[in-house]
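Continuing the batch. This is chain 6 of the set; chains 1 through 5 are on the previous pages. Same settings as before, nothing changed between runs. Recording input and output for traceability.
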Amino acid sequence: LGELSEKDVMNVLGIVRKEFKIDVQRIYLAGHSMGGGGTLYLGASYPKIWAALAPMSPAAYFSTKKLESLKKIPVMIVTGDKDKLVPVKQVRRWVKEMEELGIEHVYEEIKDGNHITSITNNPEMIGRVFDFFDKHQREKSQ
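Output for chain 6:
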C-alpha cells in the first residue's frame, strides 16, 4: 500500500509538471496525519524536488534517520498538543532530530489543539503554512 501511495503522488506530480507551467524551484509538499508522515517520507526520498515541506500531525512510523537527506529542505511541522491520534510526544521526537541534524525548521505546537479542527480546519494555520512556502524556493544547484 505504501509503495502504491508513493507512486500515486509521484505520478500526479509528473502529470502536473507535464501539463502545466511549473516553477521547479517552487514545488512544495504538505500533508496531514498519514499524509504528514508521507510528506516527511517523500521529502526525504526525493529531496531534489521540494522547495519546502509542511507535515501536519505527521503519522510517521519510520526511522528518523531518513531525515538526513532533508538538510537542505526547510520544514514546517504543525501539531496539536492534545492530539490523541498522533501524540505530540511522537512529533517532538521528529523535531528534536531535525534540531540535532541542523535542518531549517519551524515547529508550531497548537495549545489545546486536537488532530483535526485546530489544524486542517483552521484557515489561519493553513495561511501560515502558505506564508512559510512563499518564503522558500529550492536552490538552483540542487
